[in-house]
Amino acid sequence: MAGRPTGRRRAERARDGAPRGRVVVAALALLACGGASPAVTRAQALPPAPSPADLPDGPRPGEPGWVPPHERLPGELEGVGITPRPDAALPLDAPFRDEAGQPVVLGDYFGRGRPVLVVLAYYRCPMLCGLVFQAAVDGLKPLPYLPGQEYELVVASIDARETPALAEGKKEHVLAALGKTAEAAAGVHFLTGPQPSIDRLAGALGFAFRYVPEQDDFAHAAGIFVATPDGRLSRTLSGLAYDPETLRLSIVEASAGKVGSVLDQIVLYCFHYDPKTGRYTPVVMNIMRLGAGLTVLLLGTLVGTLLWRERRATAHAAAAAAQVSPTDPATSSHHASTLGTP
């Protein structure tokens, strides 16, 4: 009996345990409410909305052009990108140096009757430019075309401090990746040049870039530009993947019929480049027109063939009738005498 708690002690323990039980129950209720209402928890975690005085100059929330702070580009990427400029004239008189250090102008690679693929990059680029070169190789390597024969490939550095030696090393790397080192060398050109030439070419192509002094590199976009043989921008292919068929049709289109077959021209009539998808997509109206034209041509050919056969059959029948009818006088008299002989 000494070891068992008395009634008084049991009452004291019950009174002491009651607050603890209430605390546990309250904690479980809070956890249940929090688990059942995650939206409330997330809403409580969001920072307070900025006051108008804290907002930067520009459009306010709800106004046209407003961009939420979490969707804005970092400062070094502001204004960087590619803006397609169809039919823009390239600065063919802009001076550069080729990978051998020889002075050239951009126009030296035009006027040869071949389209020109232009890439803007820089040869010390730690990441993006290498991806652009690899994507260009992946798109060009499967084509049945060769640089220097069906097209020219011109790469210009956007860093005016780079040297022809860097350009030569990058050219050798790209040629090795193409797998056509000897055959393609004459049609692949890696250039360096002064800042005014770089800015003129980038402006004509719609290629906006920015130097980032903190990292000593450049913020820029990725793309390939397809120009006509006379130096006008024909097609802008943005991104880090260049579909071989899209590249091929872009070269054919820029060549104005000098590269490719008649079938390619028909395909270009039925398919137009769609900047949203980055591919050539069918043009329904042109396909319908082409189908209607082919239908008329086939019907005309069928009708012409039937008329020709009918006239030929009539001519043969007339010739056969002429051979049977007694039109020769000697034959006619002999035939009459033969009929009169008993």
Which tags fit this structure?
342 residues; alpha+beta; Glutaredoxin; five-stranded mixed β-sheet; two-stranded antiparallel sheet; 45% helix
CATH topology name of the domain at 81-242: Glutaredoxin
Per CATH, the superfamily of the domain at 81-242 is Glutaredoxin
CATH class placement of the domain at 81-242: Alpha Beta
Order of helices and strands: HHEEEEHEHHEHEEEEEHHEEHH
Helical proportion, percent range: 40-55%
Structural classification: alpha+beta
**SS field, number of helical segments:** 10
CATH architecture of the domain at 81-242: 3-Layer(aba) Sandwich
Stretches with pLDDT under 50, minimum 5 residues: 27-44
Rg on CA atoms, Å? 40 Å
Strand order of the largest sheet: 6-5-4-10-11
Average residue-wise pLDDT: 75
Q: Summed up, what is this model?
A:
With 342 residues, the chain is of the alpha+beta class. It has helices spanning 7-36, 38-45, 128-140, 164-178, 181-184, 195-205, 244-254, 262-270, 284-324, 329-340, and strands at residues 81-82, 95-97, 103-105, 116-121, 152-157, 188-191, 207-208, 210-212, 217-219, 223-227, 233-238, 271-274, 279-282. The chain is elongated, with a radius of gyration of 40 Å.
Model description:
The structure is a single chain. The protein has 342 residues and is an alpha+beta fold. Helices cover 45% and strands 15% of the residues. It is built from ten helices and 13 strands. The protein has helices at 7-36, 38-45, 128-140, 164-178, 181-184, 195-205, 244-254, 262-270, 284-324, 329-340; strands at residues 81-82, 95-97, 103-105, 116-121, 152-157, 188-191, 207-208, 210-212, 217-219, 223-227, 233-238, 271-274, 279-282. The chain has a five-stranded mixed beta sheet. The N and C termini lie far apart (171 Å). Residues 27-44 have low confidence and may be disordered.
